[in-house]
């Protein structure tokens, strides 16, 4: 059974220290960043070397499209999702984007991309902005649902983020602690609608490092009110809950890395991410070793559901999907 900690590595290959860390049973996943990536063949070789150490690890990347796209050289440069909304055949193009993205990620040996973004575009949050599909909840639900269908057809589980919505809070949770001062009724009737409508289709959810003080004084990812009462109870969500990166400034309200991962798991997260800070990851690991945390059985659902070879560009569906995206001027 997979552990409850997802961490990262520094380079494009595994060091002896990396291998030692990955062998710890409390480690359940590894996420790649741009610094770990050169081209498709190198990523495939890196994934194989990781699986030689731990075949059960969940391997992830952020490959949303637009500016949040770690796999670049040798991969399709997907558009920011906000660009889909103005296209004549937007749902079909969203589905094509989801399928192309997932196919490329699976082909190099990864399991998941943390996508799609369900946040609504209120024209307030610079960190969300064009990552959002739409401002209108109904239109967003249609496009996000199509994107998820494409991911599923390729064989990839999806992760909706950032529950219950990061589009209103103006601060960037990477460097600050955002606050959304609206009441629960307003959030439930607007920003939560995509999560509610798509709850049965989402395989995983990632909560926001945002404080909603009228609901709870803790960020959503540390809040049993948000994760247990509302997400699991009210929305009936039974998928995986991943924390957002616990090294981000928005998570620091919970204390050091050990306190953060404990708070995330206690609130209801199935896996905590500690990235871009090896010392913090080691501190979180020691905390989990002390607690003997029982890993969530839900995590197995996120593993890749199909194998894709690196010659996928010969697939007729690939040619059709890329052709449609190119004809709509969404890709070069």
TrEMBL record:
It catalyses: Hydrolysis of terminal non-reducing N-acetyl-D-hexosamine residues in N-acetyl-beta-D-hexosaminides. Keywords: Cell cycle, Cell division, Cell shape, Cell wall biogenesis/degradation, Cytoplasm, Glycosidase, Hydrolase, Peptidoglycan synthesis. The active site is at residues 174, 244. The keyword Cell inner membrane does not apply. The record marks 172 as: Important for catalytic activity. HAMAP family: NagZ. This is Beta-hexosaminidase. It comes from Stutzerimonas nosocomialis. The gene is nagZ.
